[in-house]
């Protein structure tokens, strides 16, 4: 009897239709969402990059600016560039400056973010406003102040050193390449720290206070909490700000050019940005300048490749 009653029940269960699967958004239309961005990128970047690439294979000088057709020279610009020992000096100097500036920026930004996390709310607000004002200040306006600070005739730095008993009267900080790049490093780091500090602070706000308190109760020191809890949690933020700083500091131009105009020796203080400017606008060799720009783009892609690969792995 039991078997006769259970049989219809099993048949009824089998007869019930399976629940409908969750509706899926057709992937064929997903590209429509990013099509406007792709079009804008192609229009904004495609033509300049293409022009640079084509010009790097041409003899493009002053004559071409007055209507004479450019002459195709193949890889001659690249051969001329790579055989120039001065280019390798500028490249090495630019990479070293880029690494130092990005490293100091991330370190100071991380320390400022930790400070904002620990201080009272009112003090934190004052720090954040000050960082935003420093970051929003136009580069040329801030450079006017910095040039006045290090001016060898009426600069505040020499005046303070003289008051402290140091014989710095009339000392030109921009004439010596070492002090020139120390000054440039301070200026670039000062301008970049606010963005890094605020970005890292946003990452610190996502760390659970209960987790840090539990670690402190277990006897973890401040350094241990920072190394084993804070740094692993904000590692993605640190990696992206480090990548952005490497790219930005490799392309630095305005600060170096204005410091050169204020008293620096241009031939001894070129970075890639000012080297391109000198080759193109200064010497009229736009083909060589375009070749340097293409090499600079390749270096930027090489620096970014590790992080891009990490993002692609996470997406997969």
| Element pattern in H and E | HHEHEHHHHHHHHHHHH
| Protein structure class | mainly alpha
> For the report, how would you describe the main beta sheet?
2 strands, antiparallel
Radius of gyration: 29 Å
Overall CATH class of the domain at 95-269: Mainly Alpha
User: For the largest beta sheet, what order do the strands appear in spatially?
Assistant: 1-2
In which range does the helix fraction lie? over 70%
Count of DSSP-assigned helices: 15
Give the overall form. globular
The proportion of residues in beta strands is: under 5%
- The number of distinct β-strands equals 2
CATH 2nd-level architecture of the domain at 95-269:
Orthogonal Bundle
Mean pLDDT: 84
Which blocks of ≥5 consecutive residues have pLDDT under 50? 1-12
- What name does CATH use for the topology of the domain at 95-269? MetI-like fold
Keywords: Cell membrane, Membrane, Transmembrane, Transmembrane helix, Transport
Protein name: Sugar ABC transporter permease
Organism: Glutamicibacter uratoxydans
Membrane topology: Multi-pass membrane protein
What does this structure look like?
The protein contains 15 helices and 2 strands. The chain is mostly helical and 316 residues long. The chain has a domain at 95-269: MetI-like fold. A two-stranded antiparallel sheet has the order 1-2. α5 (85-118) packs parallel to α9 (177-204), α5 (85-118) runs antiparallel to α12 and α6 (121-136) crosses α9 (177-204). It is globular. The protein starts with a helix and ends with a helix. 24% of the residues are buried. This is Sugar ABC transporter permease.
């Amino acid at each position: 009897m039991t078997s006769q009653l259970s049989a219809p029940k099993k048949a009824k269960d089998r007869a019930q239709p399976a629940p409908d699967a969750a509706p899926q958004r057709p992937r064929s239309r997903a590209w429509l969402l990013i099509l406007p961005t792709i079009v804008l990128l192609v229009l904004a970047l495609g033509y300049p990059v293409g022009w640079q690439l084509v010009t790097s294979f041409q003899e493009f000088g002053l004559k071409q600016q007055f209507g004479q057709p450019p002459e195709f020279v193949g890889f001659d610009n690249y051969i001329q560039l790579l055989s120039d020992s001065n280019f390798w000096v500028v490249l090495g100097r630019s990479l070293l400056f880029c690494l130092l500036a990005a490293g100091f920026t991330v370190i100071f930004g991380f320390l400022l973010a930790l400070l904002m996390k620990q201080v009272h709310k009112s003090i934190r607000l004052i720090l954040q406003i000050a960082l935003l004002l420093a970051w929003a200040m136009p580069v040329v306006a801030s450079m006017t102040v910095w040039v006045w600070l290090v001016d060898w005739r009426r600069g505040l730095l020499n005046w303070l050193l003289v008051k402290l008993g140091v014989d710095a009267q009339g000392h030109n900080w921009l004439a010596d390449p070492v002090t020139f790049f120390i000054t440039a490093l301070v200026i670039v780091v000062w301008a970049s720290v606010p963005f890094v500090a605020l970005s890292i602070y946003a990452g610190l706000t996502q760390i659970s206070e209960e987790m840090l308190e539990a670690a402190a109760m277990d006897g973890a020191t401040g350094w241990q909490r920072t190394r084993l809890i804070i740094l692993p949690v904000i590692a993605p933020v640190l990696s992206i700000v480090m990548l952005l700083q490497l790219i930005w500091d490799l392309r630095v131009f305005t600060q170096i050019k204005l410091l050169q105009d204020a008293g620096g020796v241009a031939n001894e203080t070129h970075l890639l940005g000012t080297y391109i400017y000198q080759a193109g606008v200064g010497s009229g060799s736009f083909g060589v300048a375009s070749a340097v720009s293409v090499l600079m783009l390749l270096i930027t892609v090489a620096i970014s490749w590790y992080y891009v690969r990490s993002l692609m792995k996470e997406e997969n």
